[in-house]
Amino acid sequence: MAEPSVALRPVTEDDLPLLRRFLTEPGLIGLDWAGFRDAGKISRRFATDGFLDADDTWLMVSVDDDGTAAGFVSYRKGQFGAAGPHYEIGIALLPEWRGRGIGWRAQAMLCDYLFAHTPVQRIQAGTHPENLAEQRSLVKAGFTLEGVIRACEFRAGRWRDGYLYSRLRDDPSPG
Ligand SMILES: CC(C)(COP(=O)(O)OP(=O)(O)OC[C@H]1O[C@@H](n2cnc3c(N)ncnc32)[C@H](O)[C@@H]1OP(=O)(O)O)[C@@H](O)C(=O)NCCC(=O)NCCS
Fold this sequence. Notes:
The chain is of the alpha+beta class. The chain has helices at 16-24, 40-49, 102-117, 132-140; strands at 6-10, 52-53, 56-63, 68-78, 86-93, 122-127, 144-155, 158-168.
């Protein structure tokens, strides 16, 4: 199957039902499922800033040139000590759009976007040891595995390790 075209765009009102699904359908978001969350916060956040707060942004991943939403990406500002801020990115695609070359391209595009519009030096992403799709996507998007973050999340009944990846401004862009 040919790879669909991929673009990032701001959230619109029509996307809100899809975003609510990720908070209310067990497992739709993948391994990050942490129980039911207040779906009303989607409308409240949209009314407040359209998910475009500079420190905490969500963008839709759209496919097929007609704006069809395949899922969303996010980035959030963080900081280590006195160093300049970094961003941590995240992604979730609907199951029907996974495994079609969208995830790694959307994350590479998000890096290009952040490097173009902010002076950020470091973009990081965490994932789960069993999430082979995200590990491979991050590497294809130009990220490097930094290491294991021990017992960093409580998920599915116990404390679990995570893998931390980063891409720096001067790291080579994927093809
Ligand atoms: C993780 C996710 C973003 C990856 O995006 P995707 O579009 O499915 O992945 P891609 O099609 O871009 O594939 C990228 C690479 O991963 C590989 N891959 C894809 N799905 C895979 C799977 N289930 N198992 C192993 N490898 C997989 C692909 O083969 C490709 O590598 P290759 O080119 O070397 O063959 C997507 O599957 C998703 O949204 N999953 C649910 C939510 C989630 O896990 N988010 C990340 C939380 S940390």
